[in-house]
Write a structure and sequence with these properties.
Length: 360
């Protein structure tokens, strides 16, 4: 929505007579409307991922009728839906009305590529989109609003009983971790490190990225036992079955496998502050002298003004966990110091994420 000059004048006249707010040349309702109705664009992308649009187009350009027929679009919807994806910058359409992936969609939204991040979008579509309808209830009550809201059963134990939902969740965690994994593999100095253990690492996106760029290293994912069948598929598909292993357990109750680098990525935000401190101390005690713990999350900036993505993830933790939230970089540094780590270094990664490297 954009006010034409005569509309602006009328709006100003209304304000002068006390019938409405003034709308000057530098202020319009458009940003508010775009934000408030942003769910429409979001759901358009999520549905496109669900339908496999980008994976189909990764095999080559297609005209509308052919593409619609393959993914199952109705004739009434196909033109507006596909052209909406063009307008969002997710697809390109040439003068012959042939659709193709945009460069970014071709890299990140093709299920056949290791760079695919659509897992988190698939999970958002299947789980989170509906749960966010209950955000107001969560804000008023402080209680989670997911699968276990009415049962009281543990979240992970409940989710793992549904094979489809469990695989969707794990692929989602892997999807959001994939670009971060590459950033960590490149940013951290892995010189002299021999074995990395990802604590709560889902399918192992981070150690997989590290091992691909450091062939002298091995890695382990420490996860709940129900993760292993999906993990085994991931490790085999990436040619890492001989170097990336699985260790089943619960990091609250079981010993941690030995390593000279531990990774806790998107783990601390699942738990309350006391549980976070317990996990950090447990990692410290298990590391050898000179060992490193890498913590990364969508940490909120210390001024609590800029990292909108971090705040959105924190609200998602309100909806999806019993006591989780995001936290500031200063919080992480303080907790790591209290756990015993002698040095810490915070470094920005990508997309609103921060990593803190803590050395024993």
């Amino acid at each position: 929505m954009e006010l034409r000059p005569k509309d602006k004048a009328a709006a100003g006249t209304g304000a002068a007579t006390g019938t409405g707010p003034a709308v000057g040349d530098s202020i319009t309702p458009e940003p508010i409307l775009q934000l408030g109705l942003g769910f429409m664009a979001s759901k358009t992308l999520l549905s496109a991922v669900e339908l496999g649009i980008f994976t189909v187009l990764a095999r080559g350009g297609r005209d509308r009728a052919s593409l619609a027929g393959e993914v199952g679009l109705h004739p009434r919807s196909s033109a507006d839906f596909l052209d909406a994806l063009v307008s969002l910058g997710l697809l390109d359409r040439d003068d012959d009305d042939v659709y193709r992936n945009s460069p970014a969609s071709g890299v990140f939204l093709d299920r056949a590529k290791p760079s695919y991040i659509g897992g988190i979008l698939e999970m958002a579509n299947a789980r989170l989109f509906g749960f966010w309808d209950n955000l107001t209830d969560a804000l008023r009550t402080g209680t989670q609003q997911n699968e276990v809201t009415h049962t009281g059963a543990p979240f992970f134990a409940t989710l793992s009983q549904d094979p489809v939902a469990w695989r969707n969740f794990l692929n989602g965690m892997n999807g959001v971790s994939t670009p971060l994994a590459g950033a960590l593999a490149a940013d951290f100095d892995w010189t002299g490190r021999r074995h990395v253990v990802d604590l709560g690492g889902a399918l192992g996106a981070v150690p997989a990225a590290v091992l691909r760029s450091h062939p002298e290293m091995t890695g382990t994912v420490f996860e709940l036992p129900p993760v292993q069948p999906v993990f085994d598929e991931f490790a085999a598909a990436h040619g890492l079955a001989d170097r990336l292993s699985f260790h089943g357990g619960d990091f609250f109750s079981d010993p941690l496998p030995p390593a000279d680098v531990y990774v806790m990525g998107q783990i601390l935000h699942d738990w309350n502050p006391e549980q976070r401190q317990f996990l950090l101390r447990k990692a410290y005690d298990a590391l050898p002298a000179g060992g490193t713990l890498i913590v990364y999350d969508a940490m909120i900036d210390d001024d609590r003004r800029r990292n909108t993505y971090g705040f959105m993830v924190s609200l998602n933790m309100l909806i999806d966990t019993e006591g989780g939230s995001e936290y500031t970089v200063a919080d992480a540094t303080r907790w790591l110091g209290a756990a015993g780590f002698s040095t810490t270094e915070a470094r920005p990664l990508i997309g609103g994420y921060t990593a803190v490297y803590a050395t024993k």
